[in-house]
């Protein structure tokens, strides 16, 4: 079971909230202080991407962030509700449509470059980005 | 935590000092600022990132957009950044090869390569 | 629709996360800076109470916090999953059982003393504390 | 943001300086501290709340618990607090009538009423 779950309307302003929650919960769970910047950035990227997909796809269900803690690892799953076919279309179209950026691709590049354990899955119900980080054995402090 | 922008002139360069968080929510303000500067005829920009606490790919996209714009006028866009965690993001995305990155505004303002 | 929704396992450590989220989202929505302390405290009290009810009731579903924004008000709903009969029993028993506090009552006293608009409803599916605060008309600052 | 506790002696009083957030998660540490002090025979306590950023009803409950404990030994528990937002919580819950609240540790340490 997720220890903490956040759902938010697909608006850019809520991405910051997701970063805030992810880094607070990760710190509490015992993710190394040095890795928290990485957690914050990766969650931000995954959520920004989900927000963009929802907005382009006209999907009005919320973006979902699940934070999970096992004995050894802290996992975050960011889920959008855009079926993978539509996501690919929206991603391409979107990048081309945006004036001068293709940040969707760049966001994924940042995540993959940053996080050692990451898995990106698409599906009919929407896509999911799963990431995890090691927990420090002893309680940090 | 919000985004702050302030602009000044150093020699023939326009320096944009950025502070706070550049993300999917605030990046549009930075884009607006850069677009406006170019529209007003400022083609040699220095973006000072020393006060930036957070930068994501949306922010990178805006910087790349700014670079394309000034290049269309044979201009330049240089960055000032000494923060390892910000530099890391440029490195991961290969953008250290795209942007000249300097250690100080003075260095950036006098660079010509 | 809630603009942001948080669900967390009924553990004391997550109450702080709920406070963090509530005050960040309330600030962004335009709740007066002076009221944010009140929001933080009220949400903390409501969540602490829900955590205690879940723990005493042995309920392992998450505690739910919904943040909503209308044109004029910002609302927060904190929901537990303990049916109202059981909640009353757990509340009484719990207070008596605790060594020297009856913080459940005190929590409600703080909320009612603090928040102008508050509504406490019990039900078979669990209880809900609904609170709301005015939004400043113009975007702050 | 965490809870910090430090204890010192001022005359015949034991001063507990509390800092950070007292809430449902951290309050048990404060309770433990007070219980221990009383068990060790310290019955005249001054709890300095000037460094407290957040206090909720769980924290109030622990203070009330401490008061009951010292009273069982004819002791006292005085608070030091000048922060309006913290005082407000004592006022709302009617606890200003239960705790002597002072403006400084010196004042609390010399009070005898
Ligand atoms: N997701 C976010 N990322 C970075 N900064 C943010 C975010 N959300 C809000 N802020 C900052 O918090 C400040 C307060 O928000 P707000 O009062 O709504 O400002 P604005 O009117 O500029 O949107 C803003 O200056 C904004 O830059
Ligand atoms: N809900 C909370 N309210 C107040 N402080 C908290 C909360 N959660 C964590 N903290 C503080 O954050 C610090 C870091 O947490 P942690 O490393 O788990 O400490 P601890 O080992 O004491 O639990 C702790 O000192 C704790 O006091």
TrEMBL record, chains A, C:
Gene Ontology molecular function, alphabetical: protein serine/threonine kinase activity
Signal peptide: none
Residue span, Histidine kinase/HSP90-like ATPase domain: 8-133
Keywords: Kinase, Serine/threonine-protein kinase, Transferase
Organism superkingdom: Bacteria
Keyword 4Fe-4S: no
Pfam families reported for this sequence: HATPase_c_2 (PF13581)
Kinase in keyword set: yes
PANTHER family found in the cross-reference section: ANTI-SIGMA-F FACTOR RSBW (PTHR35526:SF3), ANTI-SIGMA-F FACTOR RSBW-RELATED (PTHR35526)
Protein name per UniProt: Anti-sigma regulatory factor
From TrEMBL, chains B, D:
MF term (GO), any: anti-sigma factor antagonist activity
Pfam families: STAS
STAS domain residues: 3-112
PROSITE patterns assigned to the protein according to its UniProt record, in alphabetical order: STAS
Segments traversing the membrane: none
Keywords carried by this UniProt record: Phosphoprotein
InterPro entries from the UniProt entry: Anti-sigma_ant, STAS_dom, STAS_dom_sf
Family named by the database record: Belongs to the anti-sigma-factor antagonist family.
Function, in words: Positive regulator of sigma-B activity. Non-phosphorylated RsbV binds to RsbW, preventing its association with sigma-B. When phosphorylated, releases RsbW, which is then free to complex with and inactivate sigma-B.
Name of the protein described by the UniProt record: Anti-sigma factor antagonist
Species this chain originates from: Mangrovactinospora gilvigrisea
């Amino acid at each position: 079971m997720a220890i903490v779950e956040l759902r938010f309307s697909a608006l850019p302003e809520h991405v910051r909230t997701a970063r805030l929650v992810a880094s607070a919960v990760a710190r509490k769970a015992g993710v190394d202080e040095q890795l928290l910047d990485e957690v914050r950035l990766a969650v931000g990227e995954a959520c920004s991407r989900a927000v963009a997909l929802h907005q382009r796809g006209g999907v009005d269900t919320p973006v979902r962030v699940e934070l999970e803690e096992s004995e050894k690892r802290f996992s975050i799953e960011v889920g959008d509700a855009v079926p993978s076919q539509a996501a690919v279309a929206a991603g391409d179209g979107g990048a081309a449509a945006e004036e001068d950026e293709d940040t969707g691709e760049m966001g994924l590049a940042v995540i993959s470059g940053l996080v050692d354990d990451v898995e990106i899955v698409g599906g009919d119900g929407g896509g999911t980005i799963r990431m995890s980080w090691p927990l420090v054995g002893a309680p940090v402090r | 935590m919000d985004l702050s922008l302030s602009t000044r002139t150093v020699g023939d360069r326009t320096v944009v000092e950025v502070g706070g968080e550049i993300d999917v929510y605030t990046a549009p303000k930075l884009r607006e600022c850069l677009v406006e500067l170019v529209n007003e005829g400022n083609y040699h920009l220095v973006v000072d990132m020393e006060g930036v606490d957070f930068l994501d790919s949306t922010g990178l996209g805006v910087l790349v957009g700014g670079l394309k714009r000034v290049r269309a006028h044979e201009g330049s866009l240089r960055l000032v950044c000494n923060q390892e965690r910000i530099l890391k993001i440029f490195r991961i995305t290969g953008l250290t090869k795209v942007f000249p990155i300097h250690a100080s505004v003075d260095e950036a303002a006098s660079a010509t390569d």
